[in-house]
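Cross-posting from the chemistry board since nobody answered there.

I work mostly on the small-molecule side, so proteins are not my area. We synthesized LARABZUK and want a rough idea of how it might sit in this target. Sequence and SMILES are below. Is it possible to get a predicted 3D structure of the two together?
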Amino acid sequence: MLSSLTAGAAEDAAARLELVPFDEVERRALAAPPALDALAFLAPAERVKIIAEVKRSSPSRGALAAISDPAALASTYQSAGASTVSVLTEGRKFKGTLEDLELVRDAVSIPVLRKDFITLDYQVFEARAAGADLVLLIVAALDQAQLAHLQELIQSLGMTALVETHSADEVERALDVGASLIGVNARNLSTFELDRDLFGTLADRIPAGIVRVAESAVKTAADVSHYRSSGADVVLVGEALVTGDPARTLEEFLGVS
Ligand SMILES: O=C(O)c1ccccc1NCC(=O)[C@H](O)[C@H](O)COP(=O)(O)O
């Protein structure tokens, strides 16, 4: 599944490249207002921080929420205490768009993450042009040379890469390219199996000074608490927020010490 998602996202980017040539998207990226310092917003603190996701649909769960106004949802997240908003921009399975990201960018003053299947420089320039401060890099979708190159490109544009892992070997690969923000996704992106204990088994491999993000599979505040007690600085939540009352749910999750 991961390889088909990645191939589909690259195909869609190639179609957009026909409309907006590479040089133009690069020019827009370089002309965009500077990116926010996401690491400052996500730095370890006394309380857990939350990246709140705009998620309409997913391959594992199908349609989750209509979300006709992503900007309003993002504003709700910010008011309820989110430290960053994640926007799924993949269209085929997640029903997201880059326009969603632009709308969210204009609505909030906290960092915005482009969550997609990124393999191309073009997608990174698109992210910056749309106002993203962070870009997701999924280690399993990239070889080491691509990972190093994209991480460097993201940094050179003033953004931060959230480098996503799912095994000890992938954490090593993230460290090798100098990632400063490492996510452990509880979801196996090929089988969709969820393992809430995976973060705890990998957290010690991520040295102090690097921000640790536990991603996916949060249903209740007890799950946030579980990640926090296993060493998470930040927890990334999608489905539980968009399918419930986003403000109340987020406030409840942030109540975890
Ligand atoms: O969510 C999916 O089904 C999925 C399937 C394949 C690749 C990626 C997928 N999701 C992306 C994410 O990692 C999540 O949207 C994110 O971590 C939030 O997860 P959740 O809180 O469980 O909605």
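Reply from a structural biologist on the board:
Welcome over. Reading the output above for you: The pocket of LARABZUK is lined by residues 5, 53, 55, 58-61, 185, 187, 189, 192, 215-218, 236-240 (CB under 6 Å). The longest helix spans residues 2-19. Happy to explain the token format if needed.
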